[in-house]
Design goal:
The protein is α/β, with parallel strands linked by helices and 276 residues long. It has one domain. Helices cover 46% and strands 13% of the residues. α6 links the parallel β5 and β6. It starts with 8 loop residues before the first strand and ends in a 27-residue tail after the last helix. The C terminus is likely disordered.
Length: 276
């Protein structure tokens, strides 16, 4: 992997993001899948970076163990303030379905997360929508130690090429970190997808297009999931203040350690295709 040039990425609160169009991100995900290298991907939004600011151990995982793609209006604002705007919003809710539609026939996919029954229902919907996929298993996301061991044994038997991990943060990234290096799962693409399975199997509906275009999908979530109100109504001003303070102090920069996955983002072959 070749690090991206500085002008093709942006650091926000210590986490590095590529400045990609959606087509570039999709092409890169497909290339990682074809290369059969273990890869973890997370789609941090404002609330994820707030959590990372409070939990240095979680921020370290975002810096060194997974690739990060930008999600949401908060990150878009922070990137614009640094003069490095994102060409596209690379949220997993839009990008993952495009990936599933584009993968080769027979690609093995495992669903992990959500309340009991959600992953099973989501598997049925995905099997109907993407009949070229091989849905090889599913499990809810409420795992004790024994259940996690059983899930990992199942993953080793099924050898999925893609695992959608829908547990919320930091749990989903911590799960990926624990198992991404498993020799029996070498070549797996691990995607930390948050509430994605709820859109397929949990009755959750996407915000209408006008709200998405206005970057108000967070408001739709708050209206339909009131338990998330604190995350956004308090989290938005916290994120803005953190970014303003980091800009004044010059502390947005991600660690420059060469082994950090966050600094070894793929390029320049894909990156050079962006229209600027």
């Amino acid at each position: 992997m070749t690090p991206l040039p500085p002008d093709r990425c942006v650091d926000i609160l210590g986490v590095r993001f590529p400045r990609w169009q959606a087509e570039e991100a999709l092409a890169w995900l497909l290339s990682r899948l074809s290369q059969q290298e273990p890869t973890g991907v997370c789609f941090p939004d404002m609330s994820t970076l707030n959590l990372a600011a409070r939990r240095p151990s979680f921020r370290a995982l975002l810096q060194r163990r997974v690739y990060t793609l930008n999600d949401g209006a908060g990150l878009a604002w922070a990137a614009r303030r640094q003069g490095r705007p994102f060409p596209d919003n690379l949220n997993g809710t839009d990008l993952c379905p495009r990936l599933l539609a584009a993968v080769p026939a027979g690609t093995r996919v495992y669903l992990l997360g959500g309340r009991p029954g959600v992953a099973e229902r989501a598997a049925g919907v995905l099997a109907s929508r993407y009949p070229h996929l091989a849905l090889v298993g599913h499990h809810h996301g409420y795992l004790g130690e024994a259940e996690e061991d059983a899930v990992v044994r199942e993953l080793r038997r099924q050898r999925p090429q893609i695992v959608l991990v829908a547990m919320g943060n930091p749990l989903q990234v911590e799960f990926i970190d624990r198992h991404m290096g498993d020799p029996a799962l070498r070549g797996t693409l691990w995607l930390a997808v948050g509430g994605l399975l709820d859109y397929y199997g949990g009755g959750l509906r996407r915000a209408p297009q006008w709200m998405r275009r206005a970057r108000l999908e967070w408001l739709h979530l708050v209206l339909h999931q009131p338990h998330k109100a604190r995350r956004y109504l308090l989290g938005i001003p916290q994120f803005l203040l953190r970014c303003l303070w980091a800009g004044l102090r010059g502390t947005h920069q991600a660690p420059p350690t060469p082994e950090a996955l966050g600094t070894a983002l793929p390029g320049p072959g894909l990156a050079d295709k962006t229209k600027t």
